[in-house]
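User: Could you check the structure of this?
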Amino acid sequence: MAGDIILRTQKLTREFKGFVAVEDVDLSIRRGTIHALIGPNGAGKTTCFNLLTKFLAPTRGQIFYKDRDITAAQPAAVARMGLVRSFQISAVFPHLTALENVRVALQRERGESFDFWRSRRVLAQWNDRAAALLDEVGLTEFAQTPAVNMPYGRKRALEIATTLALEPEMMLLDEPMAGMGHEDIDRVAALIKKIAAQRTILMVEHNLSVVANLSDRITVLTRGRILAEGDYATVSSDPRVQQAYMGSGH
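Assistant: Sure, the predicted structure tokens are below.
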């Protein structure tokens, strides 16, 4: 079954001046699944995400992506391999339209500098693909809308579109539902389910109803260590999880 594992860690540990934020974490993310990382505040979820996407270096331990050791790889190199992170705070250009935002992301395929100063004719070659990505995330009607004028939930969908422009094989979503109302949550949850049909997704998420509805597998962290793992029914019925997480008001 090893070939089914797209991302795994061995004894992944990160210390900050004597404080152990992540300790001996062994993760195995199965290809083609939605895997959630949950836990109370301070459990080490964000630190773990930063380690996986190479924004932090581990104190010790190893990270393997598609059986390749990426422990020492740079963030850009990991992204080129198909492991792409979408940030908790919406990372789009506020004064560019939705179409322009996706078009900028698509220029990565050229391996050249971004073409902010290029002619419209040069940039137009990306329009069809950008429009297709907007359609995939349900944003066709917002193509000509500056990102700053888009509703919050639609901005998050735009961020997912710009992430999809990088053609990820695996997406890491950092609290994709943060700050959303029910309508936006339902829309973005449906979008995540849709894009997961052809990709692997690992997400940090506080909203337990989202986790319950979307996730194939859940890893519960507390105090930097794995407390429990399994499907939602398994982890939600675990007394240790109920004490550490469910009973903490999250």
